[in-house]
């Protein structure tokens, strides 16, 4: 389905990003798997993929300038991208209302640097790149937290960051549709990743969270990966701009 396409996936060393990179490669794409520190995790995502279709790319999205440099390197190493999956994000279980002001400032600054500022720089660079190439596909991994907030108020910064980036994605979807740039927003619920398992521990354990979910189970990361691959295929162009909820009917708008 994705033969001949080159796609950059950020945060490909673990969780949703790792599963997305693996699925895109399985569908024939040349994948640029970005990682921050965990090179082995990104390599595991592309294990067995022919060398010409597997590119590992390091970039520190927690640092100003890191996103721009990483995107430029991705383009230089591939000759051009057809799609980008803007997935990398951080969640801290701190920075809540009752924390010290210094802790609030630290957590919000890092969360917004990775989840909003760097993600939006990549969005900007992708739009410029795709506009020059006559179009391209952008998938932004958001969260149901962008619509409904979070259960644990300690993660308020994460919810705010996901809402901010969702608005940026929607703006791009509308503003550059006639340039052939299609933008899709995927909003997972509780996905079976380390981030969600850590969140579950903050709520009293996995069983407590699962009991709140309509299907009684976490979303498999493979569900997100399959949907991402479909969006990147260009098989439903007029889905551009949509927010696609993947939460097992636990949150229906």
From TrEMBL:
GO molecular-function annotation terms?
Answer: oxidoreductase activity
Annotated Gene3D superfamilies: NAD(P)-binding Rossmann-like Domain
Report the CDD domains cross-referenced here.
SDR_c (cd05233)
Q: Where is the Ketoreductase domain?
A: 5-147
What Pfam families does the record tag this protein with? adh_short_C2
Q: Which InterPro entries match?
A: KR_dom (IPR057326), NAD(P)-bd_dom_sf (IPR036291), SDR_fam (IPR002347)
Cite the entry's keywords alphabetically.
Answer: Oxidoreductase
PANTHER family documented for this protein? OXIDOREDUCTASE, SHORT-CHAIN DEHYDROGENASE/REDUCTASE FAMILY (AFU_ORTHOLOGUE AFUA_5G02870), SHORT-CHAIN DEHYDROGENASE_REDUCTASE FAMILY PROTEIN
Q: What's the protein name?
A: Ketoreductase domain-containing protein
* Organism of origin: Pseudoponticoccus marisrubri
């Amino acid at each position: 389905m994705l033969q001949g396409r080159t796609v950059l996936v950020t945060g490909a060393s673990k969780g949703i990003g790792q599963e997305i990179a693996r699925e895109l490669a399985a569908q024939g794409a040349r994948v640029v798997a970005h990682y921050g520190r965990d090179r082995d995790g990104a390599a595991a995502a592309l294990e067995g993929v022919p060398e010409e279709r597997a590119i590992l790319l390091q970039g520190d999205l927690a640092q100003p300038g890191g996103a721009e440099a990483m995107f430029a390197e991705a383009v230089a190493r591939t000759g051009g991208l057809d799609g980008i999956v803007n997935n990398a994000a951080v969640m801290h279980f701190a920075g809540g209302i009752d924390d010290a002001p210094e802790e609030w400032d630290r957590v919000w600054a890092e969360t917004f640097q990775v989840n909003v500022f760097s993600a939006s720089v990549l969005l900007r660079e992708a739009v410029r790149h795709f506009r020059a190439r006559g179009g391209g596909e952008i998938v932004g991994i958001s969260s149901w937290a962008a619509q409904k907030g979070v259960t644990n108020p300690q993660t308020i910064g994460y919810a705010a960051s996901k809402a901010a980036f969702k608005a940026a994605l929607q703006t791009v979807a509308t503003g550059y549709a006639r340039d052939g740039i299609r933008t899709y927003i995927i909003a997972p619920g509780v996905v079976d990743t380390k981030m969600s398992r850590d969140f579950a521990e903050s709520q009293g354990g996995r069983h407590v969270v699962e009991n709140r979910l309509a299907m009684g189970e976490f979303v498999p990361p493979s569900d997100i990966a399959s949907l991402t691959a479909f969006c990147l295929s260009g098989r439903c162009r007029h889905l551009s701009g949509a927010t696609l909820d993947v939460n097992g009917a636990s949150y229906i708008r």
